[in-house]
Amino acid sequence: MEQGSKSTEIFYLICALAGVIFTMYFNIQFVIEHGSFSLITFVAENYVNNGSASIANDFIIVGVVFLVWSFREAKRLKMRKWWLFFLVTFSVALAFTMPLFMLVRERRIAALSGNNS
Known about the structure:
elongated, 5 helices
């Protein structure tokens, strides 16, 4: 594997780990604060002011674009089990799923080009 590809994979891995750690911390805090998880409350609390609503809407658009692009990219590269990325996006976090997909994609491209080691 080329050095550039390996360093890119490491970058995506670090981002995926950061995405799961930094989002899960606050998700756990939410559950502790409310005693359980309520999707309705979770979404409603994202719209408590204009700034948080802007960020929430930003992530919704980015998430939709990512899911459409990743579906097409997975199909193009013949990556199996794309639906797992869809599920993880909604059950964990987009901040985890996106770099994880990029990591898997990078490895798939390396495998298709015959540079896997």
